[in-house]
Amino acid sequence: MTAEIIDITREPQRAISAASRVLHEGLPVAIPTETVYGLAADATRADAISRIYETKGRPQFNPLICHVCDIEMAERYAVFDPVSRQLAETFWPGPLTIVLPLKKDSAIHPLATAGLETVGLRCPEGYASDLIRAFDRPLAAPSANTSGKISPTSARHVMDDLGAKLELIIDGGASPVGVESTIVRVDPDTGTILLLRPGGLAAADIARAAGRDLKRRAGPAAIIEAPGMLASHYAPGAAVRLDALSIEPGEALIRFGAAPVEGMEAAAIVLDLSPSSDLAQAAANLFEYLKRADASGAARIAVTPIPNEGLGEAINDRLARAAAPRDGEE
Question: Are residue 175 and residue 282 in the same domain, yes or no?
Answer without folding.
Answer: no
